[in-house]
Amino acid sequence: MPEFSYIARDHAGAKVSGSVSADGRHEAMVALASRSLFPIEVNIDSPVIEDKRVGRVPAQLMATTYGQMADLLQSGVPLLRALEVIQRQTSHARLSHVLGQIHRQVEDGATLAEAMARFDRVFSEMAVSMVRAGGEGGFLEEALSRVAEFTEAQEDLKRRTIGAVIYPAVLATVGFAVVTVLIVVFVPKFDDLFARLRERGELPFLTDMLLGLSSQLWRWGWAAAVAVVVGVWYLRWWLRTPSGRHSWDRVRLRLPIVGVIFLNLAVARFCRVLGTLLRNGVPILRSLEISSDATANTVLAAAIQDATENISAGQPLADPLATSGRFPPTVIEMIAVAEQANNLENVLLDIADALERRTWRRLDLAVRMIEPVLLAILASAVLVVVIALLLPLLRMHSTF
User: Are residues 92 and 176 part of one domain?
Assistant: First the structure.
């Protein structure tokens, strides 16, 4: 049950303040009247506790919802009516529940941003900040439209990235499975056939090594599987710790080829979020705080947080970012020029577009390089197995 803070007068005319629990604003005013209090101001104060347990909603659906709400508001539809229409039209049960809760809270006096903030697993911090700035500045529909565009762009980049790496991942998985089946299931059938050559010491070294590997995998395969499962579980647990996450973020920025891709994607997200927030009137310190989390990299986030401290002391943004050594020099130069020209938000969005295009080209090239390498490794592994099995057969044929 939400809490409502109030300012009221008692029967003697003195001002009193406090909070009351109620299902809505009307119920809160009834509760105050029962205490012989005459309310002057009643505002919703705390979120409903159960709202924190609401799960996530697909980003594509959220982009559509933001766009629909912006269209309805631009058409002159009141906010409460717009929320009601979108809730009735959506077929997603979780989103319908969230919209219903937001409708009730806005009806009880909360702003749209305040209601959205209570569903932090559905609405991102960036979206809430932009909606808050739009509501305070009188351009709520424009802010919602930009949130929809941003969400759509981020989801499109995510889909393209996943689509680019899914084929090499499937190829590597299938190749590993094929080689494992060959060694564990197919190779042991030749063990009895080559026993005589082994007794005479005429079994080729490659064949003997392959048969030994097959025997060990057959005997200890379960232990290897358990070790892999435990290792994966431990790795996932370690990556959830602050030290593990920071170590992994530092390592992946230094990886050959893909390290540049990780860096460009993180910087592009930072620039897009920061530029979008600044364009919508969010203060720069708050924008930097939100955009640092959007990088999804603790190393870059720490550099941005250091830059935030310097900016609060009066320095421009480009100087502390350059000092960190984590951002590409071209990005730093463009930010410095944009700050001098008082055009930072537009330049940041241009930087994000350029970095995403460049990253996509690098990713496409990396995938094109990985595919033949994986095929060559798979073909080489199968060739080694075939040669190891053919060598003793050829020797046996020459003997007879």
Answer: no
